[in-house]
Known about the structure:
By secondary structure, the chain is α+β, with helices and mostly antiparallel strands. It has helices spanning 2-5, 32-35, 74-78, 138-146, 148-151, 166-172, 179-183, 204-207, 224-240, 251-257, 270-279, 333-343, 354-357, and strands at 15-17, 20-22, 48-51, 54-57, 95-98, 101-104, 108-111, 114-121, 124-129, 153-155, 187-188, 202-203, 328-330, 346-352, 359-364, 376-388, 399-405, 417-421, 433-435. The strands form six sheets. Strands 10, 12, 14, 15, 16, 17 and 18 form a seven-stranded mixed beta sheet that branches. A three-stranded antiparallel beta sheet has the order 7-8-9, with no helix packed on it. The termini are far apart.
Amino acid sequence: MQFFTCSVFLLVVVSTVNGRPDFSDLPPGPYCAKLYPDCCSGRQDECNTPILDGVCYCDDFCDRYREEDCCPDFWSYCKGIEPNVTLPPPEETRRCFFQGKYYNHGQTLKNNCNICKCMGMGRVAEVLCEQNRCLQEPEIIDEINSNRFTSGWRARNYSEFWGRTLKEGVELRLGTLNPSRSVYRMHSVRRIYDPESLPREFDARSRWPREISDVNDQGWCGASWAVSTARVASDRFAVMSKGTDSVLLSAQHLLSCNNRGQQACSGGYLDRAWLYMRKFGLVDEDCYPWKGTNEQCKLRKRTDLKTAGCRPPTNPLRTELYKVGPAYRLGNETDIMYEILTSGPVQATMKVYQDFFSYESGIYEHTPSTESYQFGYHSVRIIGWGEDTSTYRHRGSPTKYWLVANSWSHQWGEDGFFRIQRGTNECDIESFVVAVWAKTV
Length: 441
Ligand SMILES: *[C@@H]1O[C@H](CO)[C@@H](O)[C@H](O)[C@H]1NC(C)=O
Ligand SMILES: *[C@@H]1O[C@H](CO)[C@@H](O)[C@H](O)[C@H]1NC(C)=O
Ligand SMILES: *[C@@H]1O[C@H](CO)[C@@H](O)[C@H](O)[C@H]1NC(C)=O
């Protein structure tokens, strides 16, 4: 009987999806579309075509009892019905949906400081990311800003810091090595004064409008040890000479030439920086401008301004480099205030945690919930202090603060400055305060 001779020769196991055969494993065809422009009506056993090791049919009969011997394109081509089969998408068309965008398989993307890749097995593809802690994280910024009535300061997203890891920030935006070891080697001084006589507010820029140096940017070089030393010394030369030795000293000179026991853009000790300045002195910024990179020292150790090739200084009496006396430590809040009031800005070292990088304005206080094992020490320049009567948070008394110059450009914080709680040793800022005497001529 013909019926039997022309029955199923398909040796492939065809599974069905939604009642329709699943031909996803078969060669794609075309079958009927190629041989039978009109397909075949009724039963026409010769209306077939080879497929794999057998034949498949393009007549209506194939669909009657045993749908599995119809050609794969029978429904779509002869009947105009798209088979409802879901093919697993080929690898290259598998895509990931991540933060509102599609990514192709294998594509990489950057999510803040982390590299991510769209990867997948089987039907699903997903984005897998590195797990670094980022220098700025939106959650931390939001958290600080949402409790600003209790915390007293605001945070923001800095494009300069976005996309960097916390590790990079700690290594390349700070840069002061073990301040306890460094600062406790210095002697502290005793000054006789009446703490009650200290003003409630003081800003060195108002007291010495032309003498106080501007905020600068250390860049991605962990050398706050050199930058803050040069700036504090500059201010003190100008203040102590009453303007005759007005100079901006070169931090690059320190960075490049004070290399014994120091680590250039990977950090330095303050006692070594001050000792270098005491023994050899520094040239001015114009003579040795800031580059913020580790470079070989271009000056001989024992030199004067002339042999160093610097332009003549404003003070005609000066021939040798700018040197200082021994650096000294200041023990407590009022000692620090008295020192700034009488002799100009001082150098302080503080512990910097992740939240500090996002400081925008207000009186900084570390947010304990953002605590992490990653922190570093950073040296800054305290130029004054004040009291904020708008925030009566501490049992009804105004919030006392230090006014501090940072070295992350004017774009950061309050025009490059920040205020931080005073009298509470916030982030250890009162533990390692140093000043120096400028050798004016
Ligand atoms: C395919 O099957 C699914 C689930 O049975 C159904 O929701 C969908 O409408 C079907 N699509 C077509 C084109 O028949
Ligand atoms: C932060 O700033 C960067 C660069 O300007 C931007 O790409 C990023 O989306 C910002 N992040 C947030 C959370 O606003
Ligand atoms: C700070 O130290 C000085 C001595 O250097 C001392 O006279 C003064 O009482 C101290 N002030 C406080 C608030 O401890």
